[in-house]
Design goal:
Oligomer: single chain
Helix content: 40-55%
Largest sheet: 7 strands, parallel
CATH superfamily of the domain at 2-172 and 203-229 and 276-292: NAD(P)-binding Rossmann-like Domain
Strand content: 15-25%
Structural class: alpha/beta
CATH topology of the domain at 2-172 and 203-229 and 276-292: Rossmann fold
Distance between the termini: 50 Å
Radius of gyration: 20 Å
Number of helices: 13
Amino acid sequence: MKIFIAGATGVLGRRLVKQFRERGHVVRCLARNQNNEATIHALGGESRMGDLFHSDSLARAAEGCDVMIHAATSIPTGAKPSASDWEMNDRVRREGTRALAECAGRVGAKQFLVQSITWVARPVDQGPFDEDSPFHTDFVTQSAAEMETIAGEAAKRSGFGVGILRFGWFYAADTAHTRYFGENLVARKLPIIGKGDAIWSWIHVDDAAGAFVTVAEAQRSGVWHVVDNEPVVAADYLRYFANQLGAPEPRHVPTWVARLLAGSAAVDFMTSSTRTSNELFKRELGWSPQFPTYREGLAQVIALWRAEHFLGLGARRASAA
């Protein structure tokens, strides 16, 4: 198949290019500049210059492609993001999805696959939820709900299949948020907030990319929650991560103190549950994650950090020996 990827140079996109190429597919990638082009070529993809927000340039770039993938994001990486920090990500979700969906119809693509998030449907009581749960949005997730709606409506008009992959929290050795967690756990600056009893559902980015490959090759349409096999209590996760890093056990901080220091948005994110599962995706697609729980995934993350001496891990191990 010929695959077109928007967002090919991000942490997910790089893995998408690599995994689709390993499966023998032709991979064309949207590029904004020469640095993007160099990264894409190094991964084995074909670069096509274009603008995510203009369907004409996208149609020229994606001509002849069978599958369109929207993996572009602009997630804020700061510790205390404001509402304005989310504006570009909202635009990517709304305008970018509209342009890509129009492009999919114009080039005759068979399938349009979209990266979304599970917590777009998290209920008010933060209880268990699944793919049939209604949207329940806030200022961060409203654009994700609109993105899914835009993709679905375009598919009905143009006749291509649409797959919405709602992912849990991403993590990997090269993601900004995982590295932030590692740095601050080592410095004992990432506390357990309040009771630390939120339930988190994670997905390693390698497995997220593999999920896209699975859906594309199966030519399936639907909405799926893509997480690993074992949700984890926030306090247990932070303690385990710290222990594996050889860091001190995280402190406990009252919620009100955390809000003063980090802001309400960050604290709400850290104290909110995502009680969902991958059961539907496993049943319908026959998929299983390479990293079934956070334990296997963090082992790989820390091994890679050790190899690059991130946080001084490799140096500390050599010194201890």
